[in-house]
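TL;DR need structure tokens for one chain.
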Amino acid sequence: MIWAAGCASTRLPAASDTTAVDAGEKVIVLLRVVAADESQQRLEPFGSVTADNNISFGLGSFDTGGEPERLQSQRFLSKESRATGWTYFVLPPGLYYLAIYPPRHTDIASFRRSLRNAARWRLDVPASARLLYAGTLHLTGGSNKVIFGGRVLSSIDDHCISVADERDLVQALTGEHFPAWGKPRVALLQRHQGPIILRSPVPPPGQPR
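>> reply
TL;DR here they are.
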């Protein structure tokens, strides 16, 4: 299932990704988002068929000078895991800065300007992992009604975001989809403060560092 308004796909990693994970060149990073509105009503962070009505992310890395760039696609292992807030990234080992963005309810230029103020979270992806759990983000914000009923977030309160450790849930998820890779490593997101730290990408195994 792929949507044109910013792709969102429900599928397992491609064969090229799993080959890279086996070779130690990439890591599957799993993250859960739990969202609620101003009245503490639970909302699905990825529940809309319109991608702009969903939570999205930016990633900063060595290549971007640490500045998060909005991801043009989101990945989900299954329809069921998506409904409970799970998403994943396939990343080379390294140091990243994750930004969480609310659904877009304005013109694209204004939305892009607003992204500059999003809180950043440090994501450290170790070279020795195949599966990595980065935590469960709990966030709240304002909400709007959507044309077909229900509500979606219109803003995120950056000061009220917290990270929880639900490693039992992620072990059940990875055991279902990646049984050969064992238990995931756990490296919870850390809120970034202070100067940006850049780390060059870790070379694949067998190449000089």
